[in-house]
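Recap from last week: sequence in, structure out.
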Amino acid sequence: MTTEERSQLYLSYRNLGCLRHLRARQSDASRRFFEDTFEGWLCYSRSPFAIDADQKLLPSKAVCRLEDKTQVVTRSRFTEHPNRHIRSRRRHTSDVDNIATMIAGYLGLDDSLARAIAIGHDMGHVPFGYLGETFLTQMTGREFRHEVFGVIVAQRIERSGAGLNLTKQVLEGILHHSRGLGDLKIKLGISEEANAVMYADKIAYVFSDINDLFFASRFGLRLKSFPLLENRLGWFGEMQRVRVRKCVEALCLESAEKGHVSFAESETAERFAELKKLMYEVYPLANYSPPHGDDDLVRVYEYLEKTVEGVNPAVAFALLCDSEVISLIDKKVLKAEDIDDLTIAKIIPRIQGRGIGFSDPDLNW
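Predicted structure tokens:
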């Protein structure tokens, strides 16, 4: 071990639990209503954030559907790819959970809160990832954002329309986790755990997307065709776990120095931000269109608009899985009864006529 490595190791041990004083207090956890059920009474013996993660989010239908929703490369006929090592949105969720709890554990934050936010952070994603979001934005003329819809799903659609009754701290973390192409700035006024998940999400998807796009897929994309990206990636190490570890270590040390969760000023953070920006130049090349262009998706959307009465067709579309949209596209004639074969068949009757949209997360208590 070199002198530099020994020094880094010493700094790491010295800073364990350095943000414990900023840890979210379980006594501050609040829900919209008291639950006079066994699940509600569990909150008196377990962390309310652990209850959100284990008893509410993990068993939810929305998190279950993430197994059949695109991360960066869809596993459906849209890309003709059967490789199960390519991440689904559910696998990405597990990656974020892992990284977020590592960060929280090191810094002395509440790892149960970080885990709950991580598990729920993408529950509002639509079929085909950002391609689906862009499609819904074009169809409705209003920006569709998965982080906003995730809160709506949790509050108004899950549990037969009654909602999961998550703690406000978890809902705020879900709402504020996304940054898109923007700068990786923390959000003031929310928990440090929520900011940790925001960074964990970016670290998880940048490196896994590189793996999925260049090494696991058959897109024809080659890393050597992007020399600047290849050069910047090489600085982080030769394999994903090394790259992730390098970022987590830098984040924790910078956070200890700044006195709050931060990953913006170290050399590693600056190089990571550049790598993330370069990846956003690659993503459009992987955004494959449906077999016959957007007309396929329009046909499915119009079918839902006609068939599902009393429910916003954008909401109905967003709740579908990738394979379900594909199955509807493959039908030459769409019939009203085809809705019965979809996962939304049991959801629709519970939310009909309630005016549920996709742009008002409603965090008022």
